[in-house]
Target: Carbon-nitrogen hydrolase family protein
Amino acid sequence: MRQPLPLALAQAAPVPAGAPVSQFAEQVEDLLATFPGTRLVVYPELHLVGSRVRPAERDAELAEAAEPLDGPRVAELAALAGDLGVWLVPGSVCERGEGGALYNTALVLSPEGELAASYRKIFPWRPREPYRPGDRFVVVDLPGHGRIGLSICYDAWFPEVARHLAWLGAEVIVNPVLTTTSDRAQELVLARANAIVNQVFVASVNVAAPTGTGRSLVVDPEGRVRTEAGEADTVLTDVLDLSEVSRVRRYGTAGLNRMWSQFTDSDVCLELPLYQGRLDPARWTPDGTFPPPGKE
Model:
């Protein structure tokens, strides 16, 4: 029997550049003291890296803060999650990868104190971000609760990301954000759109003012905003029943639209020239999420 997933989205200002993990640990401990039932804690994009306005300073700061995933910072974060017994997404970090390449990488640390998954941002915000793009979609099972998928900020503007995460079985897309610009209004629309067209939960957590524009939110699989923040430092809490995804897909959004059940065995493949590939009806439905048409 799956249990509901209590989560907390920490809409906060970034930790100062160079601050020890212990300073972040205090933030997480204070959050859990206030919301002790939380099982998944999520912070904004690059929360642990600090922030500078001038691009030259920012890029140098990011490069200085970069570490490989087997470095001391990830080890300390994993130990923190294990000590607190929660699933922890500390936003994203600047990862130093193969050949010294920099990646904007989201981490998922488990209650057992392990690095459960890492995701490299596929769509860096060009030309402002000095990262190489990632090359794979990442989902993570939270035993007893369900499966989450990871995206980072600008990834939300590309529907292929949310679609693939949903196809891989994600029931909630966790989207850490560092938006300091006026397009947060559009991102709120995209969060709802990605939830609607994929019939998944979306949890988007942005940086608080004055660094960012806030307005973190949680959207349900039918596109309804369950909770939304203003711009100030705050914590959004919610309890998600991820089995709602199966219900919506089985009966349809608003009891009508079943997009994942669109195709039948007699439908032909649709060529997708943009991708030099095809949409194959036999591969359309996510495995294991709900029965295919005619087999319910």
The chain has two domains: 5-261, 263-296. Confidence is low (pLDDT under 50) at residues 291-296. The helical segments are 21-34, 55-65, 72-84, 159-167, 184-198, 244-251. The chain is about 25% helix and 25% strand.
